[in-house]
């Protein structure tokens, strides 16, 4: 593709006819797009101050939202009078970030925890995406594992400071990621080198994709495992599946399912931007009928709103 695209562009210049001419044809422009047209998305995540500001805003806001929960827990245990302890316990009892359908436990005596996804939530894999642009190729497991093995992902802005604050405040920090169990050691090394809380021997807080343990790509079972022993007070992700199960569906369904939780964004649930990939792509591109059914780009383009 690196050769094909410039040649095609040059040809178009000579013919001056490749772009659709308004008024002459109602047909959409048929300029072939490369298989991987993520240039804007990757450039934004790597270099735009706008991306850094957004990510930092999420994590600074999370600390502001969750600091009172830590105080409630302390007051519920050790406030000097019964009234203050009961009030704090009540506030704490009303604060739980687990989705309703997954929540099994609401014991205010449990230790506090947060659950963070890894990729594009705390680890920035945009260099991997850049390399895929270089070879005009999409994600594949082999190249991905090679990138993970390098242990060179950088931290998403604000994420190290936030998780260190959380650990220092006594909140257990769990990472629930769809990186494979085989990539676990490299992932742990990468996280630790960046300063994320994950003690040596504390790998039970890094919950990877692992069929042998019943941990499928749907993260429900792993969230439930954390919920069993902890009060989950905040969840962090770049993908709706980091918060809810059953999200591999169409956009109207996703919007309906998240409406219940609308007030949780920025208070219990914290979403990082990821314009490069995610379940949103399938939701936007794979639920068309007719000719666009098997053409993700055509489907996505048809569904753009013009008013
Ligand atoms: Mg992710």
Describe the protein's topology.
Elements: H1 4-15, H2 39-47, H3 49-78, H4 82-93, E1 112-116, E2 123-124, H5 126-134, H6 141-150, E3 154-155, H7 159-168, E4 172-180, H8 184-194, E5 206-209, H9 220-229, E6 231-237, H10 251-259, E7 269-271, H11 279-285, H12 296-302
Parallel strand pairs: 1-4, 1-6, 4-5, 6-7
Antiparallel strand pairs: 2-3
Helix pairs in contact: 2-3, 2-5, 3-4, 3-7
The structure holds magnesium ion (MG).
Question: What do you see in this structure?
Answer:
- By secondary structure, the protein is α/β, with parallel strands linked by helices.
- It has 2 domains: 36-274, Rossmann fold; 277-307, no CATH class.
- It has 12 helices and 7 strands.
- The chain has helices spanning 4-15, 39-47, 49-78, 82-93, 126-134, 141-150, 159-168, 184-194, 220-229, 251-259, 279-285, 296-302, and strands at residues 112-116, 123-124, 154-155, 172-180, 206-209, 231-237, 269-271.
- The chain has a 5-stranded parallel sheet, sandwiched between helices. The protein has a two-stranded antiparallel sheet with strand order 2-3.
- Helix 2 crosses helix 3 and helix 2 packs antiparallel against helix 5.
- The structure holds magnesium ion.
- Residues 117, 119-121, 237-239 line the site of magnesium ion.
- Magnesium ion binds next to loops.
């Amino acid at each position: 593709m690196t050769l094909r695209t410039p040649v095609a562009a040059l040809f178009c210049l000579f013919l001056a006819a490749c772009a659709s001419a308004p008024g002459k044809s109602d047909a959409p422009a048929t300029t072939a797009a490369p298989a991987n047209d993520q240039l804007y998305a990757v450039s934004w995540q790597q270099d735009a101050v706008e991306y850094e500001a957004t990510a930092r805003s999420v994590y600074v806001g999370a600390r502001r939202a969750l600091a009172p929960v830590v105080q409630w827990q302390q007051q519920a245990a050790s406030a000097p009078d019964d009234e203050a302890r009961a009030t704090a316990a009540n506030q704490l009892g009303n604060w739980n970030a687990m989705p309703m359908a997954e929540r099994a436990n609401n014991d205010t005596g449990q230790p506090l925890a947060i659950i963070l996804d890894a990729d594009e939530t705390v680890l920035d894999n945009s260099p991997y995406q850049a390399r895929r642009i270089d070879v005009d190729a999409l994600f594949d497991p082999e190249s991905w594992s090679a990138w993970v093995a390098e242990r060179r992902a950088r931290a998403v802005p604000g994420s190290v400071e936030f998780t260190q604050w959380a650990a220092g405040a006594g909140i257990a920090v769990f990472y629930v990621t769809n990186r494979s169990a085989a990539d676990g050691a490299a992932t742990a090394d990468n996280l630790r080198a960046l300063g994320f809380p994950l003690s040596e021997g504390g790998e039970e807080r890094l919950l990877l994709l692992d069929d042998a343990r019943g941990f499928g790509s749907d993260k429900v079972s792993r969230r439930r495992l954390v919920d069993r022993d902890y009060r989950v007070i905040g969840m962090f992700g770049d993908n709706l599946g980091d918060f809810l199960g059953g999200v591999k569906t169409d956009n109207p369904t996703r919007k309906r399912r998240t409406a219940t939780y609308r007030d949780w964004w920025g208070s219990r649930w914290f979403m990082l931007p990821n314009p490069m990939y995610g379940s949103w792509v399938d939701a936007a591109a794979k639920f068309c009928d007719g000719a666009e059914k098997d053409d993700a780009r055509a489907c996505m383009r048809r569904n753009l709103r013009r008013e």
